[in-house]
Amino acid sequence: MAVTIKEVALLAGVSTATVSRVIHNHDRISDSTKQVVRDAMSQLGYIPNAAASSLAGKNPKTIGIVLPNNPGELFKNPFFINAMRGISVYAQSKGYFLLYSFSRDEQEEIDFIQNYIRSGWVSGIILLASREHDRCVEYLNSVSFPFVLIGRPEDPQHTYWVDNDNFQAMYQVVNYLIDKGYRKIGFVGGPPTFRVTYDRMTGYRQAMNNRGFFPEDSMVFQGDDFSEESGYLGAERLLTLNGLDAIATTDDQLAFGVLEKLHKEHREDIAVTGFNNTVRGTYQHPGLTTVDVNADQLGERAAQLLINLLEQQTSNHQIITPNHYLVETQLIPRDTA
Amino acid sequence: MAVTIKEVALLAGVSTATVSRVIHNHDRISDSTKQVVRDAMSQLGYIPNAAASSLAGKNPKTIGIVLPNNPGELFKNPFFINAMRGISVYAQSKGYFLLYSFSRDEQEEIDFIQNYIRSGWVSGIILLASREHDRCVEYLNSVSFPFVLIGRPEDPQHTYWVDNDNFQAMYQVVNYLIDKGYRKIGFVGGPPTFRVTYDRMTGYRQAMNNRGFFPEDSMVFQGDDFSEESGYLGAERLLTLNGLDAIATTDDQLAFGVLEKLHKEHREDIAVTGFNNTVRGTYQHPGLTTVDVNADQLGERAAQLLINLLEQQTSNHQIITPNHYLVETQLIPRDTA
DNA sequence: CTGTTAGCGCTTTCAC
DNA sequence: GTGAAAGCGCTAACAG
What we know:
Rossmann fold
């Protein structure tokens, strides 16, 4: 079958232990044997058996990725595939394998995580999408297994995570709207249990305040989910207000719902902004002004953070890595604002 | 750490060998011990260590997925994420793990496949996207490693594969157009090196012939790729023909290119159809008449085929499984036809 | 700096 | 039907 460490050792005229040491760049190895072993490895096309090295207590060099399974969302929002691609870019460059699974609900997410860990297959985990009181985070912490969250955690000090600067992103959107001459800007967000909703709402409020506007609570709507229906409801609510001239939403789907209601009421004069730069927003008319969250950057950074963390554990060089990255967003101006 | 087979054996009062036999439904095990062992397993929440079982020569219960990395395509076409989801649905239900990687080109695809196999990580491989003379297929055959192709192979007899019935799908499209009263229907396809192009073209020709139309070669255009640019070029070419009233394409991207050219020439009267039911086609105006290829069904079937194959290898029951599945497509009528 | 050896958790002959 | 024991390929003390 496949070529083993033994054959490499034989060809190089050393012991298997030495070969293993060369593979892992052990300190005390003479340059000459290093060279001999490397030659032997490439000559035989040796690839270490992941199962064996994992069994023997090594980093299996595999990352588990847990995805939510909202079929509609998955289909409409390129976020997930882009994040996965981003993860793969970094992980592959470091020789890591990637495991994924779609889960239907939180319980299944936890089941998968348990399987990942107990099976001994993965060295670390990347979680996509975070809610408050995330039981996955809780579980991973309780077994102190290395993981990185894409999204902002409850406890940002003691968790590894990457996210957009959602406060800043929405802050920019609102300033953009104000610069364009809009004044009475409403807010339509997703469920308040999501951290991202909170951050973007805070960005909204701060930006408004800084420019001298002080929106009452009636100008802020938070839906039960991120759906078009919620957006529609939000617009319905906000339209009861006088003089409204713009609506900033936290998600393209919400924005589409808002636009639908505005269309129905012939209030296309009201500006609308979304978030996530979904495909529909690109191609519908009018094009939706939105924010690109740079999903592949998020993925790449998440992988980087996790792999740094893992390699740090094994090596003794205590390089202090940051525990999070904030990824830039990009405002995409189109027709709706 | 995690609970091992030893602890289960201890609790059940049997040897580890017996536990192993129970796990794998070995024949000669008394029902009573089977029960005792099962109880012990669930009581301890035992999950077998995949690395160890794989090392000891068992099916690692892991499937490797090789994806092409055409960022634009990935972003615009929900095919890949849906196929991945489909694969996950079946694989997860059978307790299989899923490994994925994005590759930049054919060489990298082969590298990943080699890594997958040599590392001992995967029991089988699913390949997305197939071209003629696919070196991956060639390689996998040469080492006789189990794999399933999503797409039609060169040698359909001796390969495991799933695909749409592309002949039938395009046959339907053309009949639909003819039923709608269109007569002079042109064809714009992708590169002839792709099997899918060939099948759809054949479906087109057959349908035309059966209804008494015999398109000359000038009515058939095959681009260098599946891009909008190629579609644009194709339309340019076909528009030189007299009396053209419809263009059937093999891909939504091509169709968008065609539409662009038609728009420019004010020939919106010409009907256009696409393939793949991309998001843009849904939301643009006019909505694109297209064909949904049921990507998640394709993924699910591919996983089913591969897992059947793998389990068959280990068990002695020679269940004869089919070597391919044909997945239904669905015509989605919209404004452009 | 390098070799020897034990053992990771599981499967699998080979006995009984 | 079930247990004992060897070994999958690799790593990590422990020697030297």
